[in-house]
Amino acid sequence: MSDPIIKIQNMNKWFGDFQVLKNINLEVEANKKIVVCGPSGSGKSTLIRCINRLEEHQEGDIIVDGNELSEKTKDIEKIRAEVGMVFQQFNLFPHLSILDNCTLAPIWVKKMPKKEAQELALDQLKKVQIDDQANKFPGQLSGGQQQRCAIARALCMQPKIMLFDEPTSALDPEMIKEVLDAMVSLAKGGMTMIVVTHEMGFAKEVADEVIFMDEGMIIEKADTKEFFANPKSDRTKLFLSQIL
Amino acid sequence: MIQTINFLKPNRDNIKNYSIIGTFLVLVSLIDVISNAFLKINLTSFLPGSLTTLFPLIIGLIGLNMMRIDYSGNKKLDLLNKNINTNNFNALLTLLILFSIIKALPQSLSWMILDATISGDSKDACTGTGACWTYIKVWFRRFMYGMYPNEFHWRINTAFILVIALGFVGYFMKENLKKYLALYYVIIYPVIAYLVIYYLISGGSFGLQWVETGAWGGLSLTFIVSFFCLIFCFPLGMIFALGRRSNLPAIKYISICYIEFWRGVPLITVLFMSSVMFPMFLPEDFFMDKLVRVIIAITLFEAAYCAEVIRGGLQSLPRGQYDAAKSLGMGYWKMHIFVILPQALKLVIPGIANTFLALVKDTPLIFVVGLAELAGMLALAKTNPKWLGFAMEGYIFASIIFWIICYAMSKYSYNLEAKYKTER
């Protein structure tokens, strides 16, 4: 068994007096796909935002690809460049074209030559089937197209890990599929993924493991089949009965 | 109550007749007022006393009332009804405004143009009852160039043309040099402009005679002060806006102190300090020109205002933009230069234009430290014993000039807004 690429040990996090994450322990091996689910306010988003330190944790250790995340971490940008993230609200840069959205970080963070970055970006855009929109601006695209562009933008940094924070929650029902398709093909390509989502169909199709969270704690962590066929805790059973 | 009175109410069938009669009545009222104001003929002298004065108002109101209908199909009539004839009260306001403009027109026209003098070159030429534009004509060069020697005015003109031309360099820059655009405008351009103005207008070398800054003045000084203040206060304001939002306590509190200090003191005291107090703190042999001190003072002052305007723009960006930039591995500076500032600065164009307009209109305050730009030259000229009593003409002239400058600036800001508009 190889070393886990993400290792979280006894992690606690507070927002002021309120404890959002309680004693989180999690190990993710390379190339594994993890789906995190649970009711709103259970700390799922906060958990994955801690993994690239968009949120700071107060206690415990988070080790990403051999680097420990703490106040002392000097090159947090280097770690973030290895960890791609896709947000619920897409968060494309509205003042840049789709192509520029994708090439900005590779050019300025990875110092890639402009031409190479553009080729890479077009390649990634092609994979999510929006290469024909490359010169448009985000405001001119539909939600589904914007989210696929956001996936391509994250992939242009050639990350080792991809984090998805409810990528389909802000989309119209008919656009959800096109985004999920892009994610499925990414998963089949062997990317390490942590996905916060309510799309149980997606979880069944690609996830290796499902984590169920409630009130800041990991209630249940099991293989996908086991999780759906045979949930252990009552809270999980209740949640699944409501969502399925 | 007045809005609900509705007699002679038209409907869609008879609107044609009603609108013709209505238009006729409004025209009668306008003709009455015009003939009264311009030709001094009272068409309604047969009516008793106060009714004569109220006659056009009543007739006009009845006329507008007859034309009022929700929807007529006639575009012009609908436009009129929608905008100035929505109810009786608005119709009354419309008529009153129209009448007062017509009444005021003959006097102002005759004072400004018909009875005004522009010939001659001394006060004796101004014998008419109207304005004396001769005054402006004679003093024109002073208003433009201050006490700067007449034979050297070409130096100011050349310097300005050069500075303006250099300002357009950005438009013609090659694509691969575009990334240095900000560097050019923030650092290189001001330095070149300073050198041009120093060597051409101040002189003292290259065979040009030295002209001390005390002699500078008029509109050219307005331009010089505004130009340097505008070009320096913007980047400085940007730094303090970022500083105020910084996570580092030292930088944050220094920025807050700076902004609150400069926003809390009146500009006029800052100018006094810069010219009277500041030199006392300097070493004996260190000399800094008064004009430079004043420019620095105004720049520091306005930078605080700019900082708050820019901070407003920074705060209006959704947090997701910061998250996205960070998650792509961008550090603080890359995130701000490529993602945050381009969006925030776009949002604050109206606010920045506001601050800049205020700055240009604040420049006359430098008169308190003895620098006479356009308004300052007016103040000097109106106390000249040979030309007493023409303050009005001078201030109208200055207002027109300032209005043109400010209107041009605000138009330019609208263009910028339209150019950089992006959909969210």
Characterise this structure:
The complex is a heterodimer of chains A (244) and B (424). Chain A has 9 helices and 10 strands. The model of chain A has no long low-confidence stretch (mean pLDDT 89). In chain A, 48% of the residues are buried. Chain A is globular and about 50 Å long. In chain A, 38% of the residues lie in helices and 26% in strands. The longest helix of chain A is centred in the last third of the chain and has 16 residues, at 173-188. The radius of gyration of chain B is 29 Å and the shape is globular. Chain B has helices at residues 15-39, 49-67, 75-83, 88-114, 133-145, 153-167, 169-172, 181-202, 218-244, 249-264, 267-281, 290-316, 319-327, 332-347, 349-362, 374-382, 391-419. Chain B has 424 residues and is mostly helical. Chain B is built from 17 helices and no strands. The A-B interface holds A 49, 52, 54, 77-78, 80-85, 87, 89, 91-95, 104-105, 108-110, 137-140, 150, 153-154, 157 and B 318, 320-321, 323-331, 334, 338-339, 342-343, 346, 420, 422-424.
Give the C-level CATH assignment of the largest domain in chain B: Mainly Alpha
Oligomer: heterodimer
Biggest chain contact? A-B, 31 and 22 residues
Strand order of the largest sheet of chain A: 6-7-8-3-9-10
- Helix tally of chain A equals 9
Residue runs with pLDDT of under 50 for 5 or more positions of chain B: 1-5
Number of domains of chain B: 2
**Major pleated sheet of chain A:** 6 strands, mixed
Topology of chain B as a string of helices (H) and strands (E): HHHHHHHHHHHHHHHHH
Radius of gyration of chain A over alpha carbons? Answer: 18 Å
Portion of residues within helices of chain B: 55-70%
Give the tally of β-strands of chain B. 0
- What is the residue-averaged pLDDT of chain B? 83
Rg of chain B from C-alpha positions? Answer: 29 Å
Q: Which secondary-structure class do the elements of chain A indicate?
A: alpha/beta
Distance between the termini of chain A: 34 Å
